[in-house]
Amino acid sequence: MKTNYSKQTEQIFEEIKNNQSKPKLLLQSCCGPCSSYVLTYLTQHFDIYLFYYNPNVYPAQEYAKRLETQKQLLERLPHQNVITLVDCEYNHDEFLAVAKGFENEKEGGARCAKCFMLRLEKTAQKAKELGCEFFGTTLTVSPHKNAEVLNNIGLQLQEKYGIRFLPSDFKKKEGYKQSIELSKKYGLYRQEYCGCEFAMGHLED
Prior knowledge:
Elements: H1 5-16, E1 24-28, H2 32-42, E2 47-52, H3 60-76, E3 83-87, H4 92-99, H5 110-130, E4 134-137, H6 147-161, E5 164-165, H7 175-185
Parallel strand pairs: 1-2, 1-4, 2-3, 4-5
Helix pairs in contact: 2-3, 2-7, 4-5, 5-6
């Protein structure tokens, strides 16, 4: 039986709705288009620190273009609570180190799982450093990403770092469709591949 991660997200909303202040969420963002719907959905419930950590993206010019698109979204998107962009230094070697030996894996396979772990672990570490109550990722909005794999990784890291993971399957309830519509509305650049050099040529987010 499949886990209903969307229902788990809503259960957390219910749990925190009577808090005197909004809990802080460190949300790893893969790109502006994917984060467009997710931010709209989450901002009424959390003060969001948006963590743009994507060492998988190649080449560096593409990384810079996606980061600029992320900033454009934050300038154009109306939001109810605080959204703070947390940038970090681009270091593609971090990704290459975990991808070594998995270069020829198919999309969605072991290489992607290694990449998810890299990005989510850095997010959990940063969330602890910033004193956030929750951490999560926008990645589950993409129909090309396995929500079960991502959520299982997040829950492992929750145990390791003592920071609550926000379970999600943001593609549900037409989340992915809404992200496309919002991207058009705000004039955002939409990339055609996931990010790494091994995925070039594959249709992605």
